[in-house]
Fold this sequence. Notes:
Structural class: mainly beta
Helix content: under 10%
Distance between the termini: 79 Å
Largest sheet: 2 strands, antiparallel
Domain EB: 9-42, 44-89
Strand order of the largest sheet: 1-2
Order of helices and strands: EEEEEEEE
Strand content: 25-35%
Number of strands: 8
Oligomer: single chain
Protein name: EB domain-containing protein
Radius of gyration: 18 Å
Number of helices: 0
InterPro entries: EB_dom
Region (Disordered): 1-22
Amino acid sequence: MDLKCDPGLGSACSQKDECSEPKSVCHNGTCICGTGYYDINGVKVIGGTCTSKVGLGSSCSQADACSDTNALCSNSECTCRSGFYDDNGSSDQGGICQQNSEFHYV
């Protein structure tokens, strides 16, 4: 009997549908979580599970858990990076990180 093990997250792969973890894809020869998901074990560890990224104001446990590309996980909460603000206000969940604008007067 010939058994084949499908690669998990962080493992080498060669085809897009070869990775065993649901919601994962083969990207540049490695199984990674697809768009909108992150590996709860971290990207440098083989194995893990893809879980949905979370929005601003939501609790998080690692840097890539936040869905907004201009957000980071700080004090266990997704917040906007320096130079950005939450367009939904700082007390509500949700919103989008917008770039701060500087006004120049002539």
